[in-house]
Amino acid sequence: KATVSVLYCRLAMSSSRRASIAELNRSLANSEVGSHHQDPCEGALELEKHEEEEGKGPLGEGKTDSSTQGGLLPFVIITISYLLYTTTDGAIRMIVLLHAYNKKFTAMEVAVMFTLYEVAGVITNLAAGMLGAKWGLKSTLLAGLILQIAGLSMCFGWQDEWSKQTAMMYVTLAQMLCGIAKDLTKLGGKTVTKLVTPEEKQGSLFKRVSLVTGMKNSLKGLGYFLGALLISVDDEWGYELSLSFLIFLVLIPIPVVWTKLSWDLGRVRSSNIKFGDAFMGYPKSLYYLSAARMFLFMSRDLWFEVPLPFLLRAPSCEAVGQVCGNIITTTLTQTLEQPRLVESCPGGTTCLDGFCENIGNGCGGLGLERQVVGAFLACYIIIYGQIQAWTPQLVTTPCNNHNDKNPPNKNTEVLWGLINAVPTTLMFALLHYSPSFENSIQGEMVAQMVIGLVFFAFVFGVNSSIHSFLVVKYAEGNKAAQSVGFYYMSNAAGRLLGTITSGAMYSYSSDNASHAIAYCMLCGTAMSILAVLLTVPIEDSDAPVSCGPIQCCSHSPVVEKTDFQELKGAE
Predict the structure, then answer these.
(1) Which residues are paired to 550 by β-bridges?
(2) More confident residue, 37 or 235
(3) What is the mean pLDDT of the chain?
(4) What is the CB neighbour count within 10 angstroms for residue 518?
(5) Mind listing the pLDDT tens digit for each residue in 234-284?
(6) Cα distances (Å, whole numbers) of residue 166 to 117, 159, 173, 176, 390
(7) CA-to-CA distance for 281 and 309, rounded, in angstroms?
(8) pTM of the model
(9) How far, in Å, CA of 445 to CA of 443, rounded?
(10) Three-class SS state of 351
(11) pLDDT of the residue at 91
(12) Three-state SS for 89?
């Protein structure tokens, strides 16, 4: 009854809903609410204020109004910290990968280096959700930034004289710290949008989530390019220079986070937090969406994280073994009187003992230089991030009449999830059967890869943005941090399975780099379809996807509840 009374008083203060007051008065006429107070609103609001001070409110334990957290200040501070961290996350991935490639590590060995990074993500997302709810987002954010500095500092210890096994173990442990840091930091970046956005502003929430997610991936793309550029500055000290600059970026937001954020931001009562809550107690829709997220990210990481950089760096098979080093040589059609000088080796190879030797492993790739590989991957991620940021304006607005009452729903994701299978299928066909890849025509290979990757970046960016919104939408206010942590645990599991599987497939399926990544692309198509199948059972009562008079993914019409029916449901 106290809850209904508080809702009644809030309703009375809203001029846009006065039509429901009379009906609510009749429903409360026989209750005992107000019998001990001359003004029932005064007593109810005093009760609400007392419960909020204890971290418990009638609208959900742990749910506080955004104004109590200083308005948008936490959103700005946490978002900037998250974005700076993300730049270093993309850069260190590129630095480790290119450094390992030059030392002739295989794709499978590089994938193993990132194993604990992803395993840590699976575990940390669960723990971070609970820690964020118990200790607050300030604590998890600071812990994430400090651990990132520790992981980057460890990378200084990678010695050239180490064996492959020793180097793999050491780098894997360093990457584990970076993986823990990533998900502790990401928790604040994803959760704060929910805390500073009113419940009735779902459209604003979608725009905020899309903005943060898009900016994050754009800066991660910048990090990829920055890492490749810094490590290429000098063969002797470029590696150390790049690590030092990344540590500097992580140090920037720590003083502001320490002094300006409240320790209570995102906290709920300790009695509400139990270990079993990390796995149980979420809406059924969140479980389905989390499983779909895992397969969605497998559809990308089965070919992106390790195979794609290896393909871009690997030389053409014809380039390997070519004579080099200012040696006079002849071709089959030339005579000794018509010599040909070969002064430098093609990209992806180096001159060793008079012959062009493969820098890494495998051939049949594009043979691009390290800076170009970094720029290639950076452009993909930046495009992908910008698509995420502009998804509300580019996609959902024209096809969903987007507003606060009609944001994207599971039907929107089903449609775009099916489209997600198209680019990987086309890229499989190009990589495996195109004459350009069969004959190593570099210009045509680059053009076809650019078209395919831009196509996938657009579709995957829309899918990821809708997913990021849906998890915040389905998250209950009193378990927002835990819900986001559980959901991104599945995200990390998808990256883990995708990275390990891609390393094995690329290394052992074929000696030809383009054929090997083609099989990875085909598996990505299968993962997209599985993600759609897991999205279909989600119980989402919102409207179907519609473009004018045309509707798709339609279901039975929804009868909207009146304000009074919603309040009776709350009672």
Answers:
(1) 547
(2) 235
(3) 76
(4) 25
(5) 777 888 999 999 999 999 999 999 998 888 876 665 545 555 555 666 678
(6) 17, 10, 11, 16, 44
(7) 41
(8) 0.70
(9) 5
(10) strand
(11) 93
(12) helix
Residue 495 structure tokens? 């990256």
Residue 264 CB burial class (10 angstroms; 0-12, 13-18, ≥19): middle
Q: What is the mean pLDDT of residues 378-395?
A: 80
* Radius of gyration of the chain from its Cα atoms, rounded to whole angstroms: 27
Which segments of 225-339 are extended strands (E)? Answer: 327-329
Provide the percentage of residues in the chain whose pLDDT is more than 70. Answer: 67
Spatial contact of 552 and 415, defined as CB atoms under 8 Å apart = yes
Q: Is 199 in contact with 74 (CB distance < 8 Å)?
A: no
CA dihedral (157, 158, 159, 163) positive or negative: positive
Token output for 526: 């299968």
Q: To 10 degrees, what angle do helices 115-135 and 480-508 make?
A: 180
C-alpha span between 121 and 157 (Å, rounded): 23
In whole angstroms, give the CA distance from residue 471 to residue 326: 61
| Exposure string over 430-452, b if 16+ CB within 10 A, otherwise e | bbbebebbeebeeeebbebbeeb
Following DSSP, what letter does each residue of 123-153 receive, concatenated? Answer: HHHHHHHHHHHHH-HHHHHHHHHHHHHHHHH
Q: Report the percent of the chain where pLDDT is more than 90.
A: 30
Length of the chain, in residues: 571
Q: Show the 3-state SS of 412-442.
A: HHHHHHHHCHHHHHHHHHHHHHCHHHHCCCH
Could you say which DSSP state residue 344 is in?
Answer: S
Looking at residue 393, the DSSP 8-state letter turns out to be I
Give the β-pairing of 349-352 and 550-552: unpaired
Residue with structure tokens 């490639």? 101
Distances (CA, A) of 152 to 4, 128, 265: 53, 21, 28
Least reliable range by pLDDT among 39-43, 117-121, 407-411, 543-547: 39-43
Quick one: pLDDT at residue 27? 52
Tens of pLDDT, residue by residue over 423-475, are 999 999 999 999 999 888 888 999 999 999 999 999 998 898 888 888 877 77
Extract the tokens encoding 160.
Answer: 């050239």
DSSP tag of 201: -
Cα–Cα dist 5/163, whole Å: 70
pLDDT of 356 strictly over 90: no
